[in-house]
Amino acid sequence: MADIPCIGAVVFDDQGRLLLVQRANPPAQGLWSLPGGRQESGETAEQGVVREVHEETGLTVRVEREVGTVVRQAPSGDDYVIRDFVCVVRGDDAVVAADDAADARFFSVSELAELPTSEGLIEALTEWNLLTT
Q1: How confident is the model at residue 100 (pLDDT cuts 50, 70, 90)?
Q2: How many other β-carbons are positioned within 10 Å of the β-carbon of residue 18?
């Protein structure tokens, strides 16, 4: 078994809504999750977060801080080790779902409870004190 380094972005807009993408492919296909994915060879986690957010949503972000790490089992039996970072949107680009995202939108904290989200997402964000109403 191997660890697969991954990254995720916790991005809020100026109204306090959270950016989520609906996964177009397994794992978690059809579920809403943070933008992110595998960290590529030769890039820092911060560079990976900026790249993944732009690829999946069209937004340019700046990394503020790392907030936590979650481990999820990959279909191969290996572990995705996902480092999550709070990011801030730079510029005024519109959100556009692209790459492996079927949809991408900002949601209020109250709307999150109604969404089919990836395993452990709400719990991790709550544990990191990122969901405030």
Answers
A1: confident
A2: 21
